[in-house]
Specification:
Layout: H1 3-10, E1 28-33, E2 36-40, E3 46-51, H2 54-57, H3 66-76, H4 90-102, E4 107-113, H5 116-133, E5 141-145, H6 154-158, E6 178-180, E7 187-188, E8 194-195, H7 198-215, E9 219-224, E10 228-229, E11 235-236, H8 239-252, E12 255-259, E13 283-286, E14 298-303, H9 304-311, H10 328-360, E15 369-375, E16 378-383, H11 389-398, E17 401-402, E18 409-412, H12 420-438
Parallel strand pairs: 3-17, 5-6, 5-9, 9-12, 12-13
Antiparallel strand pairs: 1-2, 2-3, 4-14, 7-8, 10-11, 13-14, 15-16, 16-18
Helix pairs in contact: 3-10, 4-10, 7-8, 10-12, 11-12
Amino acid sequence: MPERALLDRDQGLVWHPYAPLDGPAPYVVSAASGARLTLQCADGTVTEVVDAMASWWCAVHGYRHPVLDGAAHAQVDSFSHVMFGGLTHEPAVGLAERLVRLAPGPMAHVFFADSGSVSVEVALKLALQYQAAVGRPDRQSFLTVRGGYHGDTFAAMSVCDPVDGMHSAFPGVLATQVFAPRPPIAVLDADGRWESDESAMARWESSFRALAAAHAGELAAIIVEPILQGAGGMRPYHPRCLQVMREVADEHGMLLIADEIATGFGRTGTLFACEWANVSPDVICVGKALTGGYLSLAAVLTTAQVGAAITGSPFRALLHGPTFMANPLACAIANASLDLLERTWSRDVARVGDALRHGLAPATDLTSVVDVRTVGAVGVIQLGRPVDVPAVTAAAVRNGVWVRPFRDLVYAMPPYICSDEEVATICRGMVAAVEEVHG
């Protein structure tokens, strides 16, 4: 069937993320390989673009990687899925062993979930169960910072930013949480040093500590995206802020939940973002890059202390159990993805990060741009007003790049396997698109 007919069939039938049913026509993907997508535009033209998004940050090895393809075929030839209730299998156990070995701090237990949002739901439920198990059942709320994003399910939405998130669409349904100010934005220089305004840092720390103390009796945990706030604004912050959160959690008997779904597996320049601060969380959520973008899989990692408290509680179990928990196919691919990451992530992330830093620098000369920043394999152009998303997307495609801007940001989180020339293409395309549309 011709691709034009596919767009006609899609329109008004399929909801796309954060888009109306009668929104702009999407681009049709007809092929994907390496870091490139083959797209058909609404006018029927076909073009190849470099994917600056890594399919929303998960396809870190690109598309049709032979190692991941091989892992998928091998597992399909064995079995693709079995329930995890009362059963176990090598892909899941092997993956759990690797995750606790790679994670920052003394992680001891793993709970597999089907998506990042669900892993956050599980982490929040776990924190409530933990507090009840240690004799603090009144601790039913969470402390976080403004500007955060943790997913689109209900409990996850409740700890997203209360202004820029989706709270206003669901009044009276989302739980009320405690929100501290955003950590001050920080800059990571080319030599790996973090720089932030000292007075702003001091004010933030004082405010955070005071807010935590005032609400300590009701707070089960602190949940935060370590070092980089992702969908809330692509804002890096100083590792000292994460150290303060660890200190506050210890002082008041809260758990520290690190949402490493977007930041984990090398994206910020360390394998896990918590490593920038030498902080060990009590709970870690991982997802996105876990399977290299092949299948949806996430995991919640906890310490032995947390696991012992849950096991010693009246329920004894963590009260969650997805149908596709620890899907063998996803776990097998995740193991293959970690094989690749362990060998290559440090070199590739540093290389991609350097190329983004140099390639996006010309954007600082554009009148519409208020900031250009990079951290790890993340590059951001921030405008002084909201991005004209359809126009900038179309301009970037004409320049050989796939981007998905949001709010006032045009950004890149590309596959780690991008060549130097592909990263240069991404940077040229982003700068050209912003200049063409916004000046």
